[in-house]
Design a protein that fits this description.
mainly alpha; 16 helices; 75% helix
Length: 373
């Protein structure tokens, strides 16, 4: 393990020097876009928010998250066109939509609801936690006290030690909070009152985290918005089916607006507005980004096309989410300290972590298939 540790690059403290980050970032995005376009295939015509569309959106979101973590944690520089925050909003929006769609016409049974969340979210989380804690000990000679281990196993990642185990643990804590809020909403409220309660939760969480808890939660309004989309699904589907070109045009304009905001916000808004206002603007821009991508993908799917690459990445997106942070930031033998080959080394890293995540996903699926038999 000593030899193994010597070839690992740890980017927790020492960052990678990149002198042309904007060009390098655009080059990586171009590679991802070309692979996505090259993998487009003809399939059956799909309705709005079909399962395959949701999977593709998850695939694109996890790629943006991994790319964002490359710049934030490995390089320590923020190019203008980073969509990691917007990708988090996409995951939360899809989670809210999926839960509401599942329980829209049926009663939420506590045991069934909790078992589903446990099996899909917590079981992979527990397995990968054990793996990362073991690798930390073997490679970094790093240990955690019993209290931190217990807390992170419960999904309560509120201190530095637990949140930086894989640099994404805050999201597990955040999504568990939303699962609890959703459970309460469907157990004690009816119809529109449920949505009002969930949005009220957002209104409470937003300033409370900013001023009091400081847990770094963001994209706070995305989950209840996903729930609202599921409630009003038929109206949205009707508008898209009757006005696909107009919807596509609006989505493209929205996407251009997001890009313009990315390039100008640090000059026009950040120096003059309070940080909480900037945070609010960023959340709004993230929702706009999700809206644009969702509509564009829906229009493409309505023509009978989908990206096999995004479908594959979306299928293993949760495993990618749990695994990529530790391997990207703490023990990374692939991304070496060379700017000139960063796009290539990142592409190789993405390929390797995708393969590892696919193995983890297949192991999870096979384990539960065996259990059902």
């Amino acid at each position: 393990m000593l030899v193994y540790a010597l070839i690992m690059n740890n980017y927790e403290r020492m960052k990678l020097d990149v002198y042309n980050p904007e060009i390098c970032n655009l080059f990586i995005i171009a590679i991802i876009l070309l692979i996505t376009l090259a993998s487009i295939r003809k399939t059956e015509i799909q309705y709005f928010f079909h399962k395959d569309q949701s999977i593709q959106l998850k695939g694109l979101a996890i790629i943006f998250i991994i790319l964002g973590h490359l710049w934030v944690h490995v390089v320590g520089f923020f190019p203008k066109l980073l969509f990691g925050g917007e990708a988090v909003a996409m995951f939360l929006l899809l989670s809210g939509y999926g839960l509401t769609s599942s329980y829209k016409n049926r009663v939420v049974l506590p045991r069934v609801y909790l078992t589903a969340r446990l099996n899909r979210v917590m079981v992979p989380y527990w397995v990968i936690t054990v793996l990362i804690v073991a690798l930390d000990y073997l490679i970094l000679n790093r240990t955690y006290n019993l209290q931190d281990i217990v807390m992170t196993m419960l999904g309560i990642n509120i201190n530095v030690n637990t949140r930086y185990i894989d640099y994404v643990r805050w999201f597990i804590t955040f999504i568990l909070i939303w699962y609890i809020c959703f459970f309460i909403a469907y157990l004690f409220f009816k119809d529109k009152t449920r949505m009002l309660f969930l949005f009220l939760c957002s209104v409470i969480i937003f300033p409370m985290d900013y001023y009091i808890t400081h847990l770094g939660f963001y994209q706070i309004f995305a989950f209840p918005l996903g729930c609202a989309i599921a409630i009003h699904y038929s109206n949205i589907e009707s508008i898209l089916s009757r006005h696909p070109r107009f919807s596509l045009a609006i989505a493209i304009v929205a996407l251009v607006g997001v890009v313009i905001y990315k390039f100008t916000s640090s000059i026009i808004f950040s120096p003059y507005l309070p940080s909480i206002v900037i945070k609010t603007l960023d959340e709004g821009i993230s929702i706009l980004f999700c809206f644009a991508l969702t509509i564009i993908l829906a229009v493409v799917a309505a023509k009978g096309y989908q990206s096999l690459f995004l479908c594959f990445m979306g299928t293993i997106s949760y495993e990618l989410f749990l695994l990529h942070g530790a391997f990207l930031i703490k023990y990374n033998p692939i991304i070496i300290r060379s700017e000139s080959i960063l796009p290539l080394s990142f592409s190789i890293f993405l390929l390797c972590i995708t393969f590892i995540s696919w193995i983890a996903h297949r192991g999870y699926v096979n384990a539960f298939a065996t259990r059902e038999l």
